[in-house]
Amino acid sequence: MTSSHRRRLSPITQRRLQVFRGNRRAVWSLWIFGLLFIVSLGAELVANDKPIVMQYDGHWYVPLLVDYPETEFGGFLPTTADYRDPVVYEQIADNGWMLWPPVPFSYQTLDRDVQGPVPSPPGSRHWLGTDDQGRDVFARVLYGFRLSVAFALALTIGSIFLGVVIGGIQGYFGGKIDLIGQRLIEIWSGLPVLFLLIILASLVEPNIWWLLGIMLLFSWLGLVDIVRAEFLRARNLEYVRAARAMGLPSHLIMRRHVLPNAMVATLTFIPFLFTGAITTLTALDFLGFGLPPGSPSLGELVAQGKNNLQAPWLGVTAFVTLSVMLSLLVFIGEGLRDAFDPRHILTASRVDRPAAIPDSPRQESLP
Amino acid sequence: MNDKRLFELRRLTIRFGAQAAVTALDLHVDRGETVAVVGESGSGKSVSALGALGLLPTGTDIEGERYFDGRDIGHLSPRQWNALRGGQIGFIFQEPMTSLNPLHSVGKQLGETLRLHQGLRGEAAKRRIKELLTQVRLPRVEELISAWPHQLSGGQRQRVMIAMAIANDPKLLIADEPTTALDVTVQQEILALLDDLRDRHDMGLLLISHDLNLVRRHADRVVVMRRGERVETGPTPVVFDTPQAAYTRQLIDAIPSGRPAPPEQDGETPLLAADRVSVAFSRPKPFLRPRPPAFVAVEPLSLQLRKGETLGIVGESGSGKTTLASALIRLLPASGEIRFAGQRLDTLSGDALRRQRRGFQSVFQDPYGSLSPRMPVADIISEGLRFHHPELDESTVAERIAEALRDVDLPPDCGDRYPHEFSGGQRQRIAIARALILKPSLLVLDEPTSALDRTVQKQLIELLRSVQARHGLAYLFISHDLAVVRAMAHRILVLKDGKVVEQGECEALLENPQSAYTRALIDASSLSLP
To answer: Is the pTM of this model over 0.90?
Structure first.
């Protein structure tokens, strides 16, 4: 497979792409979700309490990347400049200019100049209002979205890796390895995940890596059964037998001949893993066992919405964000599932290629 | 219209979208007559029968006149169709393994047909079921009623299918490749049964088959189809003795013929020598009870294969042919001593065994399953070469690929294409090229031709013979078809239930078989011996 002169997509992949593209809802969802994710990746450029670039006394500064002490701009304290401080703001405005992001608040900026009591309702200053500590809800949603998706992505990739390796080994070798592995997995899956997380939250200060690690210990379990079944089936296929007869070692056969078959089932499973990871993280944050206080978290926003029923924008924002995000993922997942469903391919290809009928002439005479 | 005529198609045309599967087909079946539709796969034989009886998916375009028992069946409602099919017209399909519902007992499945069409229930239905099972000559009828499909053999299942088809005394029986999935000796019994039933009930029998031997013996009239069109029709003896169309002649001549070139006689050690090789599978141990004795798939046997020689292994399904061959090339664990080119093979393992595998390659039965659908042909062919000879550079590999493709008469530019773009015969050639590229000295061919049409089969046999002559390869040729084996093998080993029934030089053994089993096999494959 080292050859590089014929890297075109295999016909199966082409057909799947075609089916996926035929599902307009899935394609649109993918575009919207991708756009949202890209925007959230650049969250620092969209919502931040520092200017992106500025000029002061004829010098260029990039506060987004570099921390400058306040003394640089005529202040008194040698600490990092607070650009939202009216004194510093005035000083810079008099001697140069600043380019602010569209939302001049970061996820943890406390807006001290907010009118009226917090949580304050949506307005031109805070597009989605503020929460009960005076932090901008839009900025928190933006950063929280990014964190949720990144967390889910890391968890999904980790689970797929573990699940495919462990399931693949069990399925391919079968016999005792399979038997013992399955029993161990049954015991392992009997452990209460949520309970473990809650115990952990009382022992250590939970950060995102702890949460990721703990959830990774369990989230691959669902994938093992699928991958194992696919490997069990595929190891008896004739081309796998042919590869064995050719003398290829097991790891090559698994990677080259069996894995592509198993990946179909795995890919269909991804949306479930993904949405599952997001909801679990949100649920933990809601209960207060998740990310450390102050982190941008959708679950914390839900909790605030519950505690401040007089400020419906909190609950509504959290609800809309979560439901839009999960719906988009479900739609994408549906599209993926259809694209990998062989029956769907058949009906889709029958429209333009009537050759997919029994006893159709596919046996041309030989040269 | 005379009243002997039971079923008639006039200018039947079936289209799937723009593609015509059947064009202007004329066909009729009289009472008490067997009409055979023959042709290669893709010739439209099954489609025409299914289409004429409204069994094709909606959206198919069907034109022409159709009559059954003097009645126009071109415009029936779904309800009328259901009364006709399964009632007056019975069907037997090719695959007995999948056409019975595995979750219902035999009696229940038969009873369902009887209840739907005749309203029979309870004791009356049970009596009729027994009667039917007796009619299709199944043994131990009482037990069979409550048996599950998986407890029956393929032949028995096909008999149950026939019992279901004749349950409602149909006037017309359509048998679509009724015996293709069965062993040759069972095939004969099933067809004899169909003949008998036809005579007893004065049925019309429409037999769809690609097997000319079978058709020649059992059909009164033959319709030869090619690419959806009728090429020739007439009484069986006339068509077979004086075929008019060139295509019919080609089909008849496609019975494998010729003999392999004699191997070079040199006194060196045999290429492959097996001494008391046996294969046994242990059965699971029931809880708290002693482990049952292992299932012996191949009893201890010894064989030798010289360079450039072909050993044919013959037997019915379940006789242990494939198991034996897999054991000989160490794909299955076996006991006994195996020597390849003078070296012990049975004691090797791991890397040492993998390196030895270069010397013996295999080609499997199913041309659709043995090539990875996700890899282009060049990658499939070169995979083993790249692994065993990582020192070769790209241009040498490309050269070897082209050489292997030339060896199997495929155009050199097909390396970029994917397996699904090739026909069955071409795929089998790709599989052979994959084996040849490592320059082995032994090739294990496991039923390489049985999934192919006769004409393609013949070409492949000729190819295999010429490859053998060119490279001095030894073949271990597994087949249930004696006609093919005779065209390929120097020596034959006949297996039954894992035991060697007989072995010897090919011609001598076929001319003068010693065991009744070999005689039955020869008889069933209707070899025309010189």
So the answer is: no
